[in-house]
Amino acid sequence: MKEPHQPFTILLADDDPEDRMLTRDALLESRCANHLDMVENGEELMDYLNRRGQFAHLANRALPGLILLDLNMPKKDGREALKEIKGDPKLRRIPVVVLTTSKAEEDIYRTYDIGVNSFITKPVKFDGLVTAMQMLSRYWIEIVELPAEEPTHET
Amino acid sequence: MKPERLSILMADDDPDDRMLVRDALNETQAPSHLDCVEDGEELLDYLHRRGQYAQLAADHQPRIILLDLNMPRKDGREALKEIKGDPKLRQIPVIILTTSNAVEDIQRTYDLGASSFLIKPRNFETLVKTLETLVRYWFETCRLPKS
Lengths: 155, 147
Description:
heterodimer; A: alpha/beta; Rossmann fold; 5-stranded parallel β-sheet; 37% helix; globular; disordered C terminus; B: alpha/beta; 5 strands; 40% helix; 17% strand
């Protein structure tokens, strides 16, 4: 079995305030106890990850263990942010899960092609969203080993 | 969700481990189809339809790959690097399933583009539960690129 982990932060990037609330509520409902941070577009997401601008004060905090990424956002959309994250040696190991209303085959293919860790089409009904968040937590929190932020060589 | 045959390709050099995963997958009762290869070279031959896999239907690519790390000839790290560097293959999610829990292996395989990293449970019941979660997550919750 997995060793218990320090609960990591989940970061949600979504421009729609209602969608952010629904996802947060669904995560709570699925009894996911991890801390959730939220940003509103791809630019904020990159600022958050790079601890810049309004997020400079987070410099000493661990990076998130998992990113939930909407695709259609203003300023910088999810595809572009994903490309930047997966092209950055300091960030690319953080798993990114696309969480979107899109079910377009091009979006699925293209995001896997640029390195998304998985792609979830957001269920329309809240019940469905809770089930999806339950499966997401069970997978990423209970059975997966996430990369440690600082590589330590202890076992 | 529409029913779909869950086509999984597993690369593992240990025959016992291959059998355990096959048995555990059957136990989950998911309608899965598991193909197995024994090392990284065979894995790449399978994906490229070369050698003993030349006859395999071109459109029959796995939806996900379960990859062991320590294998002879070509190990999992090498195979992962090749898959993720190949524009025709890199869309297929590769899930590391290994007995290694070395921090370097976890870091490095995520860096190379592994979708996730799982430590192979030693206990059969836990393996069944793990595979059940894995199959439900990838095939019910997630969307995968068309093969």
